[in-house]
User: What shape does this take?
Amino acid sequence: MSTNIQERKIIIEIKDLKKSYGDNHVLNGFNMTLHEGENLVIMGKSGSGKSVMIKCLIGLETADSGSIMVMGEQIGELSRTTLDEIRTEIGFLFQGSALYDSMTVRENLEFPLRRHTKKFGVLKDTTPLVMQALENVGLAHAVNLMPAELSGGMKRRIALARTLILQPKIILYDEPTTGLDPITAKEILILMKSIQEKYNTSSIIITHDVDCARVISNRMILLVEGINYAEGTFDELSTSTDPKVQAFFK
Amino acid sequence: MNAIFKIIELIKSFLLEIGELSYFAGRFFRESFRRPFEFKEFLRQCFYMGNRSLLLVAVTGFIIGLVFTLQSRPTLLEFGAVSWMPSMVSISIIREIGPIITALICAGRIGSGIGAELGSMRVTEQIDAMEVSGTNPFKYLVVTRIMATTLMLPLLVFFGDAIALFGSYLVENVKGHVSFLLYFNQVFNALEFGDLIPATIKSFFFGFAIGLVGCFKGYYCKKGTAGVGVAANSAVVYTSMLLFIIDFIAVFVTNIFYDL
Assistant: This one.
């Protein structure tokens, strides 16, 4: 399976990415490719630059140097309008869900639709799209609730529904199971897998969770001190004799 | 020597902050004229800021009118000039007390609210989430709020002025048996457009300052949840200072155009 995926079209390519905050060199020449339909897990210690890398990828942070190609477009060189168009093809699940507190679940899901009339046309009634996204995550009944009324797991699911509503080709998960109990974390993983199978999305998953990596990854990158220290499938890395690699699987 | 360095650093950071605030204001003007316009959110903010500040402005205005009249009355009585009370109160309230007090109240109520709201949206990545969904958060959150405060503050000032004059009338009615018609007849006789227009223009600037500083502090909030408190607090402090500076400039400019 992994070999087949590697032969597919590359949709994200990062070359020699560097990013520093003052004297703190977070990324020191990170390289990465993501293929169509692939689930790539990136593991690393806290502060190793995982979240910074993913934010550079979506244009939330500007890299100091290096290139980021997403679906053939160089992210650093795009105008705001083109970047926004590319962003409709990329879903981002934030670590803390980042639901809009002042809006209901329905409004949270409708919010991204308002700006993307090119992709969906002018929608008079967004209800079918909203309900479909909520049904995908099993929370159709929560449509009129406020984020404050939801549990941590529900918030994560609603956030996932919000990323799905624009029908993205790529989904970026920033620590999708962090802060959840083991049962809810497992449910989220099953959901991620089912979404990938249903929509054939490509995903980059940033996580500390070995179980998450085992269940979902086609390929893994271990990020150490801002560079990709090791790369391979879960089985290859988990059986590695390198002490630095082993430390991730203990 | 250390103290000198500290002072230089303080001046540097102050100037940097002024520069960033000016850039932020420039971006507001640039984005205000670009499509798409977030008209629905602008109306929501107008309702939120205007409607929810009404009671506070009304209570404060009423008390100010009441106290101002009660405190001035004995002195005017002493000089036999108590019949000047409606003129004196109306000119003071319309020209100065009404706009500045309402603006200070709104700086506390609205400015801190904006600072805390945008600050918490920043630290919980809600602003980033808007950005990645292809919506311009500056336009949606900042432009609408600054426009709403700029438009709503003059309206709140009018409302506050009216309530303050009513409070003053109540004292005059109880103490001096002055009728409603006589009191307000004297009020309108004393007032000129030269009193109302500068006060209204000044109120627009006050509203703009409240929205601008609140949004600036909240939008660039840092250091987690502690930063939200700092953003809300500094929004009020900076706005209050800015209001007095604007007021000083406004009086100075008004003096040039109208003979005060």
Q: What stands out?
A: Chain B touches chain A through 16 residues (CB under 8 Å). Residues 38-257 of chain B form one domain. Chain B has one domain: 38-257. Residues 98 and 161 of chain B are 5 Å apart (CA to CA).
